[in-house]
Each structure stands twice: as structure tokens, then as C-alpha cells.
Amino acid sequence: MASYRIRQYRDQDYDTVRTLFARGILEHTPAGYRHVLRSAWAQLGLLVLFAAVRAAAGYWVLGLGAVALVLSATWLVVRSFSTSYVRQALSTDLRDISASYLRAPDSCFWVAEAGGAVVGMVAVAPPQDPAERGVALELKRMSVSKDYRGRGISKALCGEVLRFARARGYGAVVLSTSMVQLAAQRLYEGQGFRKVGASSPSLLGSLLCFQIFHYRCDLPGRTAAP
């Protein structure tokens, strides 16, 4: 028997949900940082920097120091991307969750509750892509507390979104996730989602080969999109 239950969001969940979302996003910062360091552009840049400083100063220790400073600055930049995304979400749809998801058409917000505490969340709303509006709904804001992963909560939350979309006659559910969120990708693919595209969030993201993956799940009984 499941040790959790899925229910609709309530106003008293507000602070917990916002904290859960922020922590879930920020925990991917190290993976994003490692991805940047694995980039050929980043590795070449660090090598050139080390060689240039060593040649100019004549000391390899100064070259290493310069590299260390750049690595520290890179960490701060990567983390700023995550914190900026969190601030943007907390100041828009997650600022008034009831208005954004419970009083808006074809939208909803669920939480997973275990031991009387909120440990997971997911939302659904019309997609931002105008081409998908009226055809699909978008799964958003999925997050599960670290201590409660591996219990099927993410799968159950995803299932709520799929059932909600199907009950309203939509033919698909779409979502976006970053390339470093490997566990999320496995979850969605296991639920029937297929990757249909990828994009870079910025010019810097393009240079570092950082992509946002776009997924789509065509619902049974509806015509699959090309």
C-alpha cells in the first residue's frame, strides 16, 4: 500500500510548495556545472588561460591560480542561472498558485503528501507554445523531495497529469526538462513521453552545448502528432 497520497493543492501548502520547488531546481546546479566543465570550449579556454598566464608571469602556480579563479566564477554564473529561474517562477505562476492553476481553465496543481507533510508537487496548464494550445496540455513544476524519491511518487504525479489531460479531451501532454536532469528524463520516457526537440536557453547555452529537451506524450485513442 502506498505510504503517500496525491491531492489537490491547498492554500496552506503555499510555503512548502515554493520551498520544495526552489530546492529541487537548485540541486541540479552541480550537474550543470560539471556539464559546463566537460564542454570542449570550456576546457580549451582553461588550457589557453593557464598557458598564457604561465608564459606571461613565468610561474605555473599563477597559471593554476588564474584557472581556479575562473572555475569559481563559472560556478557563480551557473548557480545564478538556477537562482534566476527560481526567482522568475516564484514571482510569476508560483506567486499565486490558486489563481494560476486552480481558477484557470484546463489547469490544476497537485501535491503528494506523506506523513502529513507535502513531499511532491506537479502542475498542468495550457502550453506556452501557441501551436500546441487546444491540442495538448503542459506538465510543469514537477518536484519530489530527496528523502521520498524511489517510492513511485513522481510516477503517480505524472499519472495525474495524463489522466487530467485525457479526461478533458486533449490528445497529448508536453513538457520541457534540462539535459542534466537524467532521472527526470528516465521517468518521462518510462511514462510514454518521447523527445521531440531540443533548444538552447541562451547564446551562452549554445556555446556550452547546454540544451532544454522537449518531450511529448500522445494519449491513447488520439491521433499521434507527426
Automatic annotation (TrEMBL):
Ranges of residues in domain N-acetyltransferase: 68-220
Regions crossing the membrane: 59-78
InterPro entries in UniProt: Acyl_CoA_acyltransferase (IPR016181), GNAT_dom (IPR000182), NAT_camello-type (IPR050769)
Gene Ontology molecular-function annotations: N-acetyltransferase activity
Keywords, ordered alphabetically: Membrane, Transferase, Transmembrane, Transmembrane helix
Record protein name field: NT8F2 acetyltransferase
